[in-house]
Amino acid sequence: MEGALLAFAGKVIGDHRPDGRRLDSIPFDSRHRFMAVLSKSQDGGVVRVKGGPSGSCGCAAA
Length: 62
Prior knowledge:
- This protein is an alpha+beta fold.
- The protein has two helices and three strands.
- It has helices at 2-13, 53-56, and strands spanning 22-29, 34-41, 44-51.
């Protein structure tokens, strides 16, 4: 499943992979319904969020 998500993200935003160094993470919790990982990249930090729309879209800021 995550391979499909990475392939989709590559098509949408291009090749923007973190260098593999995980800086922090929020593990999946059924109350929050999402997980998040902060990784280091060439441009600084990248936050990747995975979860259902009711959990992950509610914490987005405009």
